[in-house]
Design brief:
The chain is globular and about 65 Å long. It has 15 helices and 14 strands. A hairpin with a 5-residue loop joins strand 4 and strand 5. The chain has 410 residues and is α/β, with parallel strands linked by helices. The strands form 3 sheets. An 8-stranded mixed sheet has the order 2-9-8-7-6-3-4-5. It has a 4-stranded antiparallel sheet with strand order 10-11-14-13. The model has no long low-confidence stretch (mean pLDDT 95).
């Protein structure tokens, strides 16, 4: 028997885990599954903007050969101009790396930093690739608390308690997946102070930085901490609904004396990879410097804003469920009153929901949440499908309510 590497022990990605595999099996049997589990805009009618698609087609001939290892110059220059306009000044082109989406660059960023046993501070709940990537590269994930009662903001005091001599970095996901939290400047500055005090690298995952509701704005962490080594990650996947094209970027900022060795290591990894998807890089300048149609989707009359409000309302109207209002991205993180229902935990809930109602969601423990009483809902599906999926969740929960549970009237 050829055994898998032990480095994969403890590496999980529940968004496409065993429950997802069960959903695929049900589809092969002829069942129709309502997918509320993954942030993949295109299948739900959120097309990649036409100018981006035209840019890819128009530049197809330029993408037949290898691109530069760090990415084509025009695209990296566009990334640099974009962040300079947002307050991240003085970044060298040599500190900008393009990749096959942010997922690819997360793996590279951690591989280039970690020694065995190094600790990385991660939010709980988190986007699970971060935790698994730390483990994959020999590090130790250390989760800090995000407070559901305070709009899922990180708790700086808890972050401080978890720092040890082995701590190397802290991860921020802002806007947050899975909670939809958007962090204010004061909080980001406080976390930057912690990183500065303890010599930590900040990994700032900002892939949803344009998907903001209720008039909120987003500030790059690097703009508030120019003297701290900060790795900012973003791309075309979410803001520009271009998930399949696989185009992302990573910007390393901070004093040159502090970043030089790390950038040298990232350059080596980029060279070994040869290059990322060359054709998708052709669209980055067009995306960043063209009309930002995502703004139309998050306005009060926009589809994303409407579907967020609809999903939150239906969750809150379901006895035994609650959720904090998401301020960004396209997820809500619902909480269940487990005392009310006859299933044991969040995994039991999602498996039985899929089996009985053919609705696929992801359990909160899949996002490394410490208590098994949450699940994530993606509110991208078209309104009719979204309403039907949430209606089925309500019907499922009513059937599984314990006889002793209180009956809410009105």
């Amino acid at each position: 028997m050829v055994r898998r590497s032990s480095r994969l022990d403890g590496v999980n990605y529940e968004i496409r885990g065993p429950v997802y595999e069960r959903a695929l099996a049900l589809e092969k049997e002829g069942h129709s599954i309502i997918r509320l589990h993954i942030g993949n805009p295109a299948p739900f009618g959120f097309d990649t903007p036409e100018p981006i698609r035209r840019a890819i087609v128009a530049n197809l001939d330029k993408a037949q050969g290898y691109a530069e290892s760090k990415g084509i110059l025009e695209a990296r220059e566009a990334v640099r101009r974009h962040y300079h306009a947002r307050g991240v000044a003085g970044v060298s082109l040599e500190n900008i790396f393009l990749g096959n989406g942010v997922s690819d660059l997360i793996l590279m960023a951690l591989q280039g930093l970690l020694e065995p046993g190094d600790e990385v501070l991660l939010p709980t709940p988190d986007y699970p690739l971060w935790t698994s990537a730390v483990r994959l590269h020999g590090g130790r994930p250390v989760h800090y608390r995000c407070d559901e009662g305070a709009d899922w903001y990180p708790d700086p005091a808890d972050i401080r308690r978890r720092i040890t001599p082995r701590s190397r970095a802290i991860v921020l996901i802002n806007p947050n997946n899975p909670t939809g939290a958007v962090y204010g400047d004061d909080l980001l500055a406080e976390i930057a102070d912690i990183a500065r005090e303890h010599g930590l690298v900040i990994f700032s995952d900002e892939i949803y930085d344009k998907i903001l509701y209720d008039g909120l704005t987003h500030t790059p962490t690097a703009a508030l901490a120019p003297d701290v080594v900060c790795v900012t990650l973003s791309g075309l996947t979410k803001n520009y609904r271009a998930a399949g094209f696989r185009a992302g970027w990573m910007v390393v900022s901070g004093a040159d004396r502090d970043t030089a060795s790390y950038v040298e290591g990232l350059t080596l990894l980029a060279n070994m990879r040869v290059c990322s998807n060359a054709i998708a890089q052709q669209a980055i300048k067009t995306a960043l410097e063209g009309y930002q149609c995502i703004d139309d989707l998050v306005l009060p009359a926009g589809r994303l804003r409407h579907q967020r409000d609809l999903a939150v309302r239906m969750i809150r109207e379901t006895p035994g469920l609650s959720c904090t209002m998401p301020k960004g991205a396209f997820y809500l993180f619902a909480k269940m009153d487990l005392e009310r229902f006859d299933f044991r935990n969040d995994t039991d809930f999602v498996i039985n929901l899929l089996t009985e109602e053919k609705v696929l969601v992801v359990q909160g423990s899949g996002f490394n949440h410490p208590t098994p009483d949450h699940f994530r809902v993606v509110f991208l599906p078209r309104e009719e499908e979204l309403v039907e999926g949430l209606r089925r969740i309500g019907s499922f929960l009513r059937r599984h309510t314990k006889v002793s549970a209180p009956v809410l009237e009105g």
